[in-house]
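Slide 14.
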Amino acid sequence: MALGGVSLLLPFFAAVFIVPAALVCSLIALKNGSRGLGVVGLILSCIGAIGILSTSSSLSSGLGGTSSSASHRVTYQLVGTASSASVTIENESGGTEQHVVSVPWVKEFKAGEGRFVYLSAQNKGYGRLEATIYVDGQTIQSAETTEQYGIATASGTVH
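Slide 15: predicted structure.
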């Protein structure tokens, strides 16, 4: 019973190990004739298992590439007087890409709620370079450099 109760209070990763142990202890208690203790332990173990399944489902839907709810339009934009830049981005599948691009430059894709977005641009010479991330037309973050080979980095979360 105590292990089942503790699993309700512990973080997900600890609960993954404690809930099965609580279930086994509850079954042993039932087998040894401690009906009340065994039933309470089983109930708490089941609640802990539901918590694990719920958390696991939430974690898996928030990881990786675009989810089925990819309803937000993400726009990466570089503008300024610089002629070219080396960019590093978090792409639509969650991977990292690097490219040399001409300024101005724009990349758009769809992303789900809670998705991390990242744009970093290094000026390949002189001039002003501004890196901006938009979600559904709203600015998430913007950064600027005017230094030779300076870097402007913007990041955020899709909301």
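Speaker note: The longest strand covers residues 72-80.
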